[in-house]
């Protein structure tokens, strides 16, 4: 006789039993919505870090020093949220894909494992029967895991948002108090003090409630004080829109396991984000390079060439020319203006120079001319060791990165073929400290003609 084509008949299951071909009744009702959302969110979230990098590096050189910490925290926690959600939904997609694979396998082979078809001895067969879980049970477990991961992603996002908002508020208050009352000092100490003022009373209240809460009168002053502290803690550390989900996780996994999972995941993502930021700044460039230097005056820096400044360097404040090989009639030298370094430098070099615009057109033109002259004096540009004095600077902005600055067009037709070197002094604030050994305080831009 020929073997039945129907897999149900081949496995011994009733041919008219529709159960193996249907999604199990125990399956999470929202599995299709989860899958569609995960696909869309993963695609969107994988692009978000690049957007955040571009905005952060564009704003970084323009913000005053005291408020830079606020931008750093916003950027850090925004990337943590993006990485966390992207990672969570990638795991969810993988779990759902595994679930779909098992569902398909169950549809093709509804009878499950055909033990008689395995060439195993009695001992191996008994061991395999003990270890192999029924396919419907595995389908249910993976289904529950995928839905749990999906919910955990939003819990993680809510906690990252909550921590970021609280941090932004605390940094803002600490910065305002430091600038207004303490002359710009003790910003970090003020922030730490406010964090302790929030966390310590709530933690002590929770500890006291566990030890003595059962003996307290419900309407007593101590009970009302504990309720007040708990209410403050929940408003600051646990937003209401996510409390139900958090309570389900805490009660099902246990408070310690749930908190450990959340803290380890959150701070693991913070560590990954920190490493990502440091790597973009070149912190790890020289690791394992041996004799080959990655930084210094003898190394060509791609930030000095407009056609090599990628997304990560588009907002770099290092001066640059159009390319390392100049082919046109001019060398376009663009020097970005970083306010935190440049403004104090100009104030020290040209103390009589007005910073604010003048309403009179004639005086305003004279003021701008004086600003350009002061910048030329501070930067002291040279080409092949010869000071550049005949070529004027003009105010401009970089068309790619949007950086404000000044530009000079140096004639290139008279330059000999071969290697040339531009030098520009770096902006250095008064009292910035001594230069490191081997550092001459110059930007060196090498190009070929």
Give a brief rundown of this model.
With 449 residues, the chain is α+β, with helices and mostly antiparallel strands. It has 12 helices and 7 strands.
Give a description of the structure.
This protein has 449 residues and is of the alpha+beta class. The chain folds into 2 domains: 7-280, no CATH class; 302-448, no CATH class. The protein has 12 helices and 7 strands. The chain has helices spanning 7-11, 31-45, 48-59, 65-108, 122-131, 135-181, 187-212, 221-237, 240-253, 255-280, 339-349, 361-379; strands spanning 330-336, 382-383, 386-387, 394-397, 404-411, 419-425, 442-448. It has a 4-stranded antiparallel sheet, with no helix packed on it. The chain has a 3-stranded antiparallel sheet with strand order 1-5-4, with no helix packed on it. A hairpin with a 2-residue loop joins β2 (382-383) and β3. It is flat and about 90 Å long. The model is unreliable at 1-18 (pLDDT under 50).
Number of domains: 2
Count the beta strands: 7
Helix run count: 12
| Strand order in the largest sheet | 3-2-6-7
Average pLDDT taken over every residue: 80
Distance, first to last CA: 85 Å
Query: Which band does the percent of strand residues land in?
Result: 5-15%
Radius of gyration, rounded?
32 Å
Helix share bin: 40-55%
Low-confidence stretches: 1-18
Order of helices and strands: HHHHHHHHHHEHHEEEEEE
């Amino acid at each position: 006789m020929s073997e039945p084509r129907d897999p149900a008949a081949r496995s011994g299951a009733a041919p008219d039993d529709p159960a193996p071909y249907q999604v199990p009744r125990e399956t999470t009702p929202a599995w299709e919505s989860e899958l569609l959302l995960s696909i869309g969110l993963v695609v969107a979230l994988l692009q978000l870090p690049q957007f955040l990098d571009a905005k952060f590096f564009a704003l970084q050189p323009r913000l005053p020093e005291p408020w830079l910490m606020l931008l750093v925290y916003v950027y850090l926690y925004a990337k943590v949220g993006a990485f966390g959600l992207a990672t969570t939904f990638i795991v969810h997609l993988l779990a759902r894909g595994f679930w779909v694979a098992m569902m398909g396998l169950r549809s093709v082979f509804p009878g499950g494992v055909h033990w008689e078809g395995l060439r195993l001895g009695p001992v191996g067969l008994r061991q395999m029967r003990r270890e192999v879980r029924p396919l419907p049970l595995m389908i249910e477990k993976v289904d529950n895991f995928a839905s749990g991961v999906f919910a955990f992603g939003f819990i993680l996002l809510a906690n990252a948002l909550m921590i970021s908002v609280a941090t932004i508020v605390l940094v803002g208050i600490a910065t305002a108090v430091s600038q207004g009352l303490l002359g710009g000092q003790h910003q970090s100490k003020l922030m730490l003090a406010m964090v302790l003022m929030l966390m310590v009373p709530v933690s002590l209240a929770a500890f006291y409630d566990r030890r003595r809460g059962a003996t307290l009168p419900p309407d007593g002053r101590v009970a009302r004080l504990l309720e007040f502290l708990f209410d403050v803690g929940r408003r600051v550390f646990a937003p209401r829109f996510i409390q139900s989900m958090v309570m389900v996780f805490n009660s099902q996994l246990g408070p310690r396991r749930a908190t450990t999972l959340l803290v380890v995941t959150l701070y693991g993502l913070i560590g990954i984000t920190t490493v990502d930021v440091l790597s973009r700044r070149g912190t790890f460039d020289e690791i394992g390079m041996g004799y080959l230097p990655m930084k210094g005056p003898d190394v060509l820096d791609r930030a000095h060439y407009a056609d090599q400044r990628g997304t990560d360097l588009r907002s770099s404040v290092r001066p640059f020319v159009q390319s390392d090989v100049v082919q046109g009639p001019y060398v376009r030298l663009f020097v970005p203006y970083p306010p935190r370094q440049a403004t104090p430098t100009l104030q020290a070099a040209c103390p009589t120079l007005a910073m604010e615009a003048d309403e009179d057109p004639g005086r305003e033109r004279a003021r701008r001319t004086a600003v350009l002259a002061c910048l030329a004096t501070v930067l002291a540009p040279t080409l092949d060791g010869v000071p550049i004095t005949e070529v004027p600077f003009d105010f401009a902005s970089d068309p790619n990165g949007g950086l404000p600055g000044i530009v000079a067009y140096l004639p290139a037709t008279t330059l000999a073929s071969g290697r040339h070197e531009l030098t520009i002094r770096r902006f250095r604030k008064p009292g910035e400290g001594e230069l490191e050994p081997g550092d001459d305080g110059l930007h060196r831009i090498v190009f070929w003609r």
